[in-house]
TrEMBL record:
Residues 64-132 form the PDZ domain. Gene3D superfamilies: 2.30.42.10. Keywords: Membrane, Transmembrane, Transmembrane helix. The keyword Membrane applies. InterPro entries: PDZ, PDZ_sf. This is PDZ domain-containing protein. The chain crosses the membrane at residues 23-45.
Amino acid sequence: MQNSETDTNLATSISRWRTARKIILGSIILAGSMATSAALLQRYAGTNCKAQQQRVAERGYTYSGIGAVIQQRGEFVVVRDVLPGAPADGVLREGMHLVSVDGMYPVSVEDWAAALRGPSGTSVTIEVATRCSGHKFVTLERQLIRVHK
């Protein structure tokens, strides 16, 4: 009788194990389906502000400033490029180090960008440094700048 009771216990354990395995596999499949659905919903129905801003920047934008593209190089902020027809065109050149703006000494590129931009028609005085000609002050009038790509 012990054999038959052991066989019954073994059969019950195997049956329980199979049931548990089916439940776990079903849960994994269900979780995968839900994750896939959520990802698709986010991709197609959600708003990704950063991607939307990137698309706007790729098409172009408008701002009021001097038309100089700046970047951080080590501890300095320098002119990377000047937009044709902008107030900085013919005045600032690539590689010039920006020292001060209206008597202030911005630290980051973001601070420089904020200081160089302003209402159209207002002026801004910038101290720049070059290797050959040293320091000089230039005053530019901000204009509406349209950047198209």
